[in-house]
Amino acid sequence: MEKGMTIAGNLIVDYVKTIDSYPQIGMLSSITNITKCVGGCAANTLVDIAKMDPLVPLQCIGTVGDDENGQYVLSVLDEHNIDIRSVRKSGEAPTSFTDVMSVRDTGERTFFHARGANATFSIDDIDFNKIKGDMFHIGYALLLDSFDKSDREYGTVMAKALCFAKEKGLKTSMDVVSENSNRFEGVVSSSLKYCDYFIANEIESSMISNIPARDNQGKIISENMKLICEALFAKGVNEMAVIHAPEGGWLMDRRGKFTFVPALDLPHGYIKGTVGAGDAFCAGMLYSIYKELDAEKALRLASAAAAACLSHENSIDGMRKISEIMELEKKFMRYDQTI
Question: What domain range is 57 assigned to?
Answer without folding.
Answer: 5-331
